[in-house]
Structures are given as C-alpha cells and as structure tokens.
Amino acid sequence: MPASPFLIIGAGIAGLWTALCAAPRPVVLLTGAKLGDNTSTGWAQGGVAAALGPDDTPSLHAEDTMSAGVKLVNKDAAHMLAKAGTAEVNALYDLGAPFERDEHGAWVLSREAAHGIARVARIKGDQAGAGILAVLIRAAKAAIHIEIREGWQAEALLPDAGDGCAGVLSRAPCGALHELVAEHTVLATGSLGGLYAVTTTPWSSQGQALAMAARLGAVIRDCEFIQFHPTAIDIGLDPSPLATEALRGEGAVLVDRKGVRFMADTHPLAELAPRDVVARAVHVQNQSGRGAFLDAREAVGEAFPDQFPAVFAACQSGGIDPRVACIPVTPAAHYHMGGVETDLNGATSAPGLWAVGECACNGLHGANRLASNSLLEGLVFGRRTANAVKAAAPRPVRPRIVQAPPILPDEALQTLRQALSRHAGVVRDMTGLKTLMSTLARMRAQHGDAPALIAAHFVALAGLERTESRGVHFRADHSEPHDQACPSRLTLTDLRNTGDTSHTGVAA
Ligand SMILES: Cc1cc2nc3c(=O)[nH]c(=O)nc-3n(C[C@H](O)[C@H](O)[C@H](O)COP(=O)(O)OP(=O)(O)OC[C@H]3O[C@@H](n4cnc5c(N)ncnc54)[C@H](O)[C@@H]3O)c2cc1C
C-alpha cells in the first residue's frame, strides 16, 4: 500500500489548523465522529487569548501564562505562543471567524481568571468554539489538499519495522479495520475528560492519544495535571454544561445556598482567582453541604440570553432561569495539561509521530493552563507542526502488523469514571491514588490493555508519584510544593513496573 506523506488524526482546532497550514502538501484527515461532532473545540465558550488590546503585549501574556503554570511552564513555549498568537487570531479572523469588534474595529476582549488584562477574543458572547469550528470545517472542506475521512476511528498506531510510527490502524465507518500507512502521523485527538464521571468535555475524549503513543514507546508527560473547571452547571447532565468564566469576568459571584459569597475571603482576586483555587473552594463548599452557586442576577440579569446564549440554554434545560435564580455549580474535569511529550515543533520521541493540541504536552501550560490559551495553542503549534512536517525529509516506512486493542465495556467504563473522579479529582492523597491503582490493575487483568485504562493508569501513577501540591495537582497529604519544579515523564514500561517508582523524574 502506498504511504501517504501526511496523516492527521482528529478534527478539532488542532487537527484542522494543522491540515490547513500543511497546504499544498496532501493531507489525509481522520475523525472518529462526524466532522464537527465530539470536539471540545466546538464547545469552547470564552474565546481565544492573545495580546490584541492596546495596553497588552506578548510579554505580558507570556508572563501570565508562566505564573499560572507554577514554575513548570516551558518559557520558550510560552513566549512562542504569545508572540505568534496575535497573527494566528488575525489569520482566523481573515478566514471568516466572526470575532467581536467594536464600531472602530477594535477587538472586544473579555478578562478571564489569572489574566492581568482583558485579552480573550470572543464570538457572540459564549459562541467562540462553535463559530471557530464552523469556519475551520468550511475551509477544510474547500481545501483541495485535504482528504477528510469522517467516522474513521484510529485504534492503534502502526509500528515501523525500523523505528517509530508508520501510520495508523483505523476502523472505517463500516466496521472494517484498515491499515493507513503514512510517513508522518499527527495525533490531534484532544482531551481525556471523558475518563471522569463529571466532565465538561465530550465523553468520547478518553485520552486515546496517550494509549496509542505509549504503545509505540513514546514518552507521556505531566499526566497528573488535569484542570477542573470550577463552574460546571450541576443539573445532572453528562457531560456537564459549562458556565463560562466570562460570567465571573462580567461580575457574577459565587455564593453558598444562603447567598453568602465565599471567594472574597479565600483569595485576593476572589472569583477571578486561578481556576484551581476556585475549583477547590467550590469542591469544599459542596462537600460541606453549604453548596456552591453562581449568582449572575445583578451582573448580567436580563442580558443573559443575548450575552451568553449557550449557558442560558443549558440552564433552561435544567429548569433554571439565570436572570432570576442562582446556578448550582460543581467542579468538572475540563482540560488536560499533560499529554504525549513533544518538542516545540510537535515532534514526539517516536520518529514519524507528532502530536498537537490538547493531547500533546510541550510544557506550555505547566501545572495549570491559563484560561483560553488552549485554542491558541492549537493554532500556534498546529502551524509549527505543519511546517516541521513539510520540512521533514521523506521517510520510507515498513509497517508492522498490530492488533486492535480491547474495548472497555460500557459498565466498566462507568466504574473507571467514578474511580477517577473520586481518587484523582480536585483533592488527592496517597490512599486514594493507591486505591485507584489497585482498581486499574484489577480492571486491566479483567479487560486487557484497553486504551481508557492505560490513559487512566498514567494519570494515577503520575499523581501518586508527585508528592507535592502544584497548580491543579493538590495532594491533601503533601499540601506544599517542592522547591524545585520537575515535569513527570512516564512510558508504558513504567506502568508495567509500578512497584519501581524511582525512574520517572518527578521531584522527590
Ligand atoms: C466546554 C469547554 C469549554 C472550553 N472553552 C475554552 C475557551 O473558551 N478557550 C480555550 O482556549 N479553550 C477552551 N476549552 C478547551 C479547548 O476547547 C480545547 O483544549 C481545544 O478545543 C482542544 O482542541 P483539540 O483540537 O486538541 O481537540 P478536540 O477539539 O477535542 O478535537 C479532537 C478530535 O479528535 C477526534 N478523535 C478523538 N479520538 C479519535 C480517534 N481515536 N480516532 C479518530 N479521531 C479521534 C475527535 O472526534 C475530534 O475530532 C474548552 C473546553 C471545553 C470542554
């Protein structure tokens, strides 16, 4: 079978932008769902962070990014993101993304948590993701260099007889397995939020890239760092709809069931404190029975349906009118800072394998992502990855046969999701993480190396080995950070030797 030069798995912002930037090189783009479905991209509400305002600079943006990531951010990645970010948002605008501008043509920008300045470009209030995705899909469908295969689910990467990756084993819409041979394969499969019982991401986002890349020997980095959004709307839906942070930027406050604000006493920035701080406060409120609610009645009030149509619709589906009532909220798994380790051009440790977007980790976010930096990450590092693949030398490949991994039955998946939420959630400790490790070992013995179990195992082991609290990783039994910040790096071999934990590079 002839090798296609350039294969991309995933059609969110990262996969689509990489594909568009690859022109004129022919690209095959796979998405397991229908184009536009099952992406976090389409659900993004706040917008894209970039230094677009008159008082802002890329340096300020990079500094906020580094400060949010608690000493673990790769400085080069942060400066690269901030510097290239403005041009990328402008390119997206030029492509037709309807970002809000005022009557003088200036960007309308929101301020989100831990940003020192208003810097988030938005679309129709809370419609950023839907607006961006629609424009990207239109452009990709019109691009003659992109062949889109919808409903093609990547199951495993094809190992090369030499070294690295030789393409992907994919299940076609008819259910048949096909080997798609490629010189360069880019993973852009998004988050792992769907491994948690309470999540804001599509349930199908289950860390597929981690399992696929790890089977090929690639290094998985910083897997313990999962950002929990503090204000998922608690109306029993799975996934949980989101009440965007922009609401707090507009002045909405967090109150208990008696209407008493609780963030003002917790952090100087109150409701606009870093997400992990707000998420823990909301968690404590809910655990204590005092409850946590977002009160936007005064700050937004009657303007709610116009300013935040997606949040308004979600509230209405749960019988809540946010113009006159408070919104019950809970923390939910929202964003994965960790992922398949890459350099600043998207190259992983496996030759021929690249990763970009939320499934990748180049150290940009460190221990905590600055709000609205991830759509921008897809743009900036998508273009860099496309350029690097275009510049790479041709790579003759000789694919080896690989078996499709087992699929976790639905009942077991629900057990897994409950276990992760309980033991690797907003607050963790050694006992809980060890319980989780045992649960996972039992499940792997019963169900085999299903990708969801492997991805969850990386989270549990990295969390257990990080005996400190840093950013979103809060250990009740180790509440302070170590003096030195070190990334965590794990491979599949480490999971198999979970007794020996001395090799991972996590700070002692
Ligand atoms: C509710 C919500 C609101 C958010 N708001 C913001 C915001 O305002 N600003 C911001 O910057 N970030 C926001 N984020 C985060 C941001 O949306 C994501 O980090 C970003 O969109 C990830 O893009 P991606 O392309 O990496 O992944 P995704 O957009 O999730 O796309 C992944 C793609 O991979 C495909 N896929 C997955 N597995 C396979 C497989 N095995 N085979 C084939 N295809 C596969 C999926 O079908 C999909 O096409 C938000 C996230 C959520 C959930």
- Give the tally of β-strands: 18
Number of helices: 14
Query: What's the main sheet like?
Result: 7 strands, mixed
> What small molecules are bound in this structure?
flavin-adenine dinucleotide
Features:
508 residues, alpha/beta, Flavocytochrome C3, Chain A, domain 1, Methane Monooxygenase Hydroxylase, Chain G, domain 1, seven-stranded mixed beta sheet, four-stranded mixed beta sheet, 14 helices, disordered C terminus, binds flavin-adenine dinucleotide
Brief write-up:
The chain is an alpha/beta fold and 508 residues long. The chain is built from 14 helices and 18 strands. It has helices spanning 13-21, 58-68, 75-95, 128-142, 208-215, 246-249, 275-288, 304-307, 309-317, 374-391, 410-423, 430-447, 451-465, 492-496; strands spanning 4-9, 27-31, 48-49, 109-110, 120-121, 146-150, 153-159, 165-171, 177-187, 220-221, 226-233, 253-255, 293-295, 327-336, 339-341, 353-355, 360-361, 489-490.
